[in-house]
Each structure stands twice: as structure tokens, then as C-alpha cells.
Amino acid sequence: MVDLKGQYNKIKTEIDHAVLDCIQSTAFINGPDVQKFATALQDYLKVKKVIPCANGTDALQIAMMALELEPGDEIIVPSFTYIATAEVIGLLGLVPVMVDVDPITFNLRKEDIEAAITSKTKAIVPVHLFGQSAPMEAIMQIADARQLYVIEDTAQAIGATYTFKDGRKQRVGTIGHIGCTSFFPSKNLGCYGDGGAIFTNDEALGEKLKVIANHGQIKKYVHKYIGVNSRLDTIQAAILNVKLKYLDEYAAARLKAADYYDQELAGLPGITTPVRVADSTHVFHQYTLKVESNRDALKAFLEANSIPAMIYYPVPLNEQEAFRGIGKVIGDLTVTQSLCKTVLSLPIHTELTTEEQDYIINKIKEFLKK
Ligand SMILES: *Cc1c(COP(=O)(O)O)cnc(C)c1O
């Protein structure tokens, strides 16, 4: 699905230098590259605070820990997402409230959120699924009216830009109260191991998030909160300092690949290509088709022809055993149920060539003719 080796080879000299410098400095924990990366990402995102941490799941957990929520408080999440989004909610004794998603964008819808709000609702977690923003203007309006927190799960959409009705543009992850992201190797901005970050425009909240990520310590051996130990390794920060410079280029390469798939797969019977919304750029973390029938047979056919194809996500959150007795489900989640049976993600990455895409496209056409 990704070609991390090909991507590395193009920036090998820079990466190797950065990593070796870090090893030679022996500043493995909280070395200068970590702050340098936080500052560079702040500038890129135009956000006041970036707090690097160990992974995207920790970012979400730390975000929720900072909000002083109480057991039983409810957090609205899409039912069609990766487990991490809701797992931390369960872990903290909070209630993940799973709502359905839009059949076209796969993201949260205003109506579903409104229908799920109770007196216990404290936050909404929009996930910018597959690289495109959730409808943030509507979500922020609901949140403002109901005094809810918004924690953006930006693990799949770093670099995407959302445009408000008045023309104002903001990077996703910087619109809600807190944004969270992951630098897992296959994410759009991936390091060479685990990594994550939390963003906020609220300075006081930023300070608190930073403290919680570091054992709740406000000064040496003085601990104000129960925190965690969640750090971004200096080596990973050094790698990210190199890769951040290429993020826009990487997004452009993914977009070009997506344009080509769109063009070549348009109008094929039973296949729906990803729909792009007007108010967000799409950074194509995934290129996800809806396949009306025989999705699993198509996947198997592609795999038999050495083409990786993945189902994100085969099982909705509400059907995960882990959430039994913990989560709350709103409505019958018909869209989510249907998406789990029809979605299929094709390879998309920064090194994908037109020849490789032609091969994939032709195999899809061959399958449909059978
Ligand atoms: C990858 C991902 C995460 C978790 O990130 P990790 O760094 O693997 O912990 C959370 N949410 C979504 C939507 C993701 O895709």
C-alpha cells in the first residue's frame, strides 16, 4: 500500500545525516530536534502550540485527560473509524457515543451529532477520514452552542486545509480545541517508528497537555496531575524535521495519483470513486472506492495479481467486543454497516507510478468484465 523504501531513497542523504547527528549527540530523549520539530510544525500548521508525543493514540488520550472529564461523560465519535479514536475514551472510563457517518464523505454529519447529544455529552471527536476534513464549520457551531469540546483526530489528514464560508482557511487539527495526529510510518507525515503530536491554539491548555504528557510534572519532582510518559524520540523528530519540508510535495504526489485513478475509473459499473467536498482539500491518506457488489472477490483478485488492496474498516466500532457494555450506539448505523461491506482502498503513496496505476486499473477492469 505504501513504498517507504522508495521514499527514503530520495531523501537518504538528508535522513542519514540527521539520524547520525542525533546518535553522535546522544541526546536521545528531548534533544534539540524535538523542540525544533514542534516549532516547525507550529509554523506549518499556523497553530500556537504543538506538543510532540509518543504516538497518535497517546495524543488522543492526553487530549481527553486534559479536559477534566468525569466517568460516564459522553464523547461523540464516528462509528466508522480506526479503533484508537474511541479506545482511549473507554480506557478513561468515558462513554464513546458512536454515530453514523455520511455515505459520500465517510465523515461525521451534523444531524447525527445533534441527535446524539445528551446532558452528559462533553466532547465531539471528528475524524478527518482518509485525508479530507469533516464539516468543521457545522461541528464548531454545534460545539459552541452546546459548550462541547472538539478534539480533531487528524491522524489521516495532516496538511489538509478547511475553508470556512467566509473564505477563512485553516489546517485541519487547528480548528477544534485540540487536534491530534500520528506519525506512524504509513501516515502522510510518517517517521521511522512511532510518533504523534497534539495541537492547540489555547496557550493554557497547551501547557497542561505538555505537563500531562510528562508525568503531570510542573517542575522537577512536583506532579500536579496524573499524567503519562509519552515522548517523541529525538531520532524520530530529526527524521520528521527532514520529512516535514516535503509534506506539501507528498500531498501533491498523492493528489496526482488520485486524479489519475478518478479519471480512469470514472463510470465503471458498480464502482464509486472518492467524492471530494468543496470546503476541504483532500490529502488522500487513502484512495477508497465503494464497490457495490463482489467487493471481497475483487480484493482477492487484485491480491492474486500482486496488488495490495485493503478494507478500512471491515468491522464498525459498535461491533467490536472491546466496546461491549461500554459504548453507546445511536440509531442503526446503516451507512456504517453498508460501508464496511463495500469500501476498498487501493495503493496510494508518494512513489506510485502511472505504470503501476495502469496495471491496477486494468486489473480492476478485467475483474468487472468477468
Ligand atoms: C493511525 C490512527 C490513529 C492512531 O495513531 P497511532 O500513532 O498508531 O497510535 C488514530 N486515529 C486514526 C484515525 C488513525 O488513522
Question: If you had to describe this structure to a student in words, what would you say it looks like?
Answer:
With 370 residues, the protein is an alpha/beta fold. The protein has 2 domains: 4-244, Type I PLP-dependent aspartate aminotransferase-like (Major domain) (Aspartate Aminotransferase, domain 2, 3-Layer(aba) Sandwich); 247-369, Alpha-Beta Complex (Aspartate Aminotransferase, domain 1). It is 40% helix and 16% strand. An 8-stranded mixed beta sheet has the order 1-9-8-5-4-2-3-14, with helices on both faces. Strands 12-13-15 form a 3-stranded antiparallel beta sheet. Helix 2 packs antiparallel against helix 9 (234-244), helix 3 packs parallel to helix 9 (234-244) and helix 4 (56-65) crosses helix 5 (84-91). The longest helix has 19 residues, at 247-265.
Structural class given helices, strands, pairing?
alpha/beta
Instruction: Give the count of helical stretches.
Output: 13
Determine the oligomeric state from the structure. Answer: single chain
Rounded mean pLDDT is 97
Shape: globular
Hetero groups bound?
pyridoxal-5'-phosphate
Main sheet strand line-up:
1-9-8-5-4-2-3-14
- Could you name the CATH class of the largest domain? Alpha Beta
Secondary-structure map:
Layout: H1 4-10, H2 12-25, H3 32-45, E1 49-53, H4 56-65, E2 74-78, H5 84-91, E3 95-99, H6 110-116, E4 121-124, H7 136-146, E5 149-153, E6 161-163, E7 169-171, E8 178-182, E9 196-200, H8 203-213, E10 217-219, E11 222-223, H9 234-244, H10 247-265, E12 271-272, E13 287-291, H11 295-304, E14 328-329, H12 334-342, E15 343-346, H13 354-369
Parallel strand pairs: 2-3, 2-4, 3-14, 4-5, 5-8
Antiparallel strand pairs: 1-9, 6-7, 8-9, 10-11, 12-13, 13-15
Helix pairs in contact: 2-9, 3-9, 4-5, 10-13
The structure holds pyridoxal-5'-phosphate.
